[in-house]
Amino acid sequence: MNDLLPMGAVVNRELVRLLRRPRALGLVGFVVVAAVTTVLSLYPDADMSPAALREASQHIFAAVTGVLFVSAVLLLPPVAASSLVLEREQDTYALLWLTLLGPWGIVISKALNAVGYYLLMACAVLPVMCISAFLIGVDVPLVVFAFLTVIATAVSSASIGVVCSAVGQSTTGAIFASYAVIFLVLVGYMLPLYIVRFVLSLLVPSTYEWLLLNVTDFLFFASPVSSLGTIISDPASVAGKFSAPITALVAQVAVAFGATAYAARILARPSEKRMYLNPIGVGREGNQARPLQRENAQQRSSPYALRDVPPPLPRAAVPQPRVVDIEYLYEAPLPLWPPVRDEVNPMFARELIQLRLDTRVTGPRAAILFLVGAVIFGTSFLIAVGTMSGGETLRLTQIWVNLGLFGAVVLAPVATSARWARERENETFDMLRMTTLTPREIVSGKALAAIRASYQFAVSLFVVSFPAAFGLLGGLDSIVLFVAGLPTVAVTLLECVAFCLLAGMGGERTPATMVAGITWLTLLHALPVLASLVIFNNKVPIYWSCFAAVVSPAIAFNLLPLASPGAVFVMVIMWLVSCGLHAANAYVLLRWAAARYAQFYAQAT
Q: Does the reported pTM lie above 0.70?
């Protein structure tokens, strides 16, 4: 318990410093605006029947709960996963032990910093969520259960992020690992679970089949995704044999406790288990003060100690410098990377080297990537089997392209946020102006590196979800839809990179710029669509379709299969216009980023 006493001071310092920044207020306002806009877009009319009113109330409840859940899964991991890595990168990790905090205190304080900020957003959205309770069809206990499930998911996500931060050596790697582990914990285990259930159903006698079904159902409801889905879609099943909310709450609390214990075990290395003295000279246990724990004498010996310095060599034994000839230069070892060609942007070459260092595959990374890839492959295989059996090959191709769009929107902030933040964290931002590169060359080099990083992950998603490619066997329509999806993904990726590059230029920390990039990208793509729903209220579908198609190339692409035969030409024109406008917008954003960097350059000089 004494290890946890100084925890309040650490939480107070870091959390208050986080809440005093304007970006924190902006993120809270974004979540509230998204929730309010969602409610307004789905709010029922006065002339609705009770059945329609009940359905609208459930839609509002599902949408607001989804906003809170997605915010917990997307916004918390960068903050938690960078908590301990930044301490190492800033050389302040050793100072944490001077605060008299034990391993448990350090882990809990870092997790509370992230969860406390999220609780502010959740409490701000809670009144909006309670609106559905005043309508017909949603009970108050369901709202309470859903809110507690989301909070438990936030706590478990923060704990997993702290574990990845304790293990990781770089900020970007820890954030990627936290997203992958959270994906596996939330939904990744369901596919292996049902595979094991199918195999065991063939081996286990029918007498014990009830036990197998109950265990698999319990593990299924342990995921907050399935629990919230059950609460929203089938509220009557909440009072079943395995209550979905209680099961998810217990499971997420267990995950949070296990992750916290594992992170504390990682931090409690033998060289860091020191015994400190309090100011009055009394030890932590008993009334007698104990001396500090000392290292072994052999460990304290330094190779640079005076007693270890060998006697100086005689003058004749000192090696003389040899004349370096041309042949000896050719025998010198080459660097780990090839030299930069004249036609290549030097900033792009520099960022590409850093990208290779950040994406090197180690043992833990290979294990996490294999598990995530196996889950995505299995899920896409099941989706392909389900859609092919129903003859919906066009829908399978649409799902495949949407997976690439999702990867572009999510991975672009992760790949772009570290471009400027790393320069400030390493104190090399001002050194860029000492080069002979122009602001446009610097911005374009960083943009190309971010596109390269996002492109690699997007292609990896396409390859891992290869079973969805069987939708191309459906005919010419599927092939044309897939060909139309490729430029849609490219334009969306380019615009996301340009926007995040501009928004992250003023950021000083990688997680803050990453969270801001994800938030503003969501605002850029989702808020105009919700606003169009509020304005037109689905009464003029053609106007809403045209407006939404221009706002987002992804929406224009998804509206192509839904168009009637007479409106296909119009929707294709709208899709082309949308892609052209957003490509031009990406170019304008990159020029704006170059002009803004030129202002930083002028202020520095």
A: no
